[in-house]
From TrEMBL:
It catalyses: meso-2,6-diaminopimelate + H(+) = L-lysine + CO2. Its cofactor is pyridoxal 5'-phosphate. InterPro entries: Ala_racemase/Decarboxylase_C, DAP_deCOOHase_LysA, De-COase2_C, De-COase2_N, Orn/DAP/Arg_de-COase, PLP-binding_barrel. Pathway: Amino-acid biosynthesis; L-lysine biosynthesis via DAP pathway; L-lysine from DL-2,6-diaminopimelate: step 1/1. Residues 30-373 form the Orn/DAP/Arg decarboxylase 2 C-terminal domain. It comes from Roseobacter litoralis (strain ATCC 49566 / DSM 6996 / JCM 21268 / NBRC 15278 / OCh 149). Keywords: Amino-acid biosynthesis, Decarboxylase, Lyase, Lysine biosynthesis, Pyridoxal phosphate. This is Diaminopimelate decarboxylase. The gene is lysA. Substrate binds at residues 278, 314, 318, 347, 375. Specifically catalyzes the decarboxylation of meso-diaminopimelate (meso-DAP) to L-lysine. Pyridoxal 5'-phosphate binds at residues 239, 275-278, 375.
Amino acid sequence: MDHFLYRDGVLHAEDVPVPEIAATVGTPFYLYSTATLLRHFRLFDEALDGMDHLVCYAMKAASNQAILKTLAQAGAGMDVVSGGEYLRAKAAGVPGDKIVFSGVGKTAAEIRLALEGGIRQFNVESEPEMEVLNATALAMGVTAPITIRVNPDVDAKTHAKIATGKSENKFGIPISRAHEVYALAASLKGLEVIGIDVHIGSQLTDLAPFEAAYDKVAELTGQLRAQGHNIRRLDLGGGLGIPYTRDNQAPPLPSDYGAMIKRKLGHLGCEIEIEPGRLIVGNAGIMVSEVIYVKSGEDRDFLIIDGAMNDLIRPAMYEAYHDIIPVVEPDPGIEQVKFDIVGPVCESGDTFARARVMPPVAAGELVAFRSAGAYGAVMSSEYNSRPLIPEVLVHEDQFAVIRPRPTFDEMIKRDTIPTWL
Ligand code: LLP
């Protein structure tokens, strides 16, 4: 459920009519709903009720500080994957002891940054990384709390580009080698082993792969404890999928996921962390765009809009489906038409949808891409010298620009010209 609904004939974000925002900030733009963000965070939080737990929002999904602050004020921790994300979380007021650091390629500089600023734990992904973390911590005279990310070799049954838990993926250490790697970690004086980490992929629409992975984590917990490791925290990653269409079968709910975690891991008495990104922000955001032209091709009509692949890369990159709806509510009886929906960027990959059946819209009208809150703005670029589009946050009847659109001048002035030119 989200808070983007038609009311009085136009799409509203909570209590604000979307055309009013478009008139103020121009198109295209990203628009987020505070109520939806909070609702989704609380669904996870409540799903783990009764267990010692922390929901660490995977901020790679949408990292605007206003979003981070909204979630942090509700009690969220953060899952970060770079020095930039770490500093952004800190700037948004998230304390270090609520930040977990994931990622396969943490540099010594990033590690230092997090050890200086405070960190809940590092999720270590390889032995070489472990050595660097140990050396850095020892040099600073501190101890780094760690979990080790294990790769459980489980098929997440999602798009190949976002599956991470198979042995051929670059992530984690093979679970079959966990014993020797934990033994190495225990021997390093700069590290304190506190738990196990696992993350098998994104946009999972079935609980079965999670269950398979968590069974393996439960078994490993018992074995490692028997070997003397004090395993007291399990980071279970993110990955629960969201509905992108209104007709398909909805993925399991956070409550189903939480109940499964309790069933599989509750008996271990560990503190539980989860790292959801998409489910918290995906359906809490839309992208609003204006139709520039309706062009009749030989055998199809193109809806040419002012948003493009540089603004929302998911359809081009993952063949992702996004529901695209008119901002003015169509008459219920209106005859649907078929469009290829495309942006102005100069490549055919700049296609959001082919033969999409939808109500007719004309040049100058607004359309909204639903489910665009996650991996939308954060993956945008200035390809074709199109300035990054603004982000706007709604809270009840108020809205605020949380990242302004750069002017052409600002964009162009970032280039610097060498003296020999
Ligand atoms: N934790 C780790 C270690 C991750 O790598 C990810 C996502 C998450 C948590 C959050 O997963 P989520 O709950 O959002 O599924 N750009 C792609 C998705 C990439 C996901 C990367 N890792 C897309 O647009 O579908």
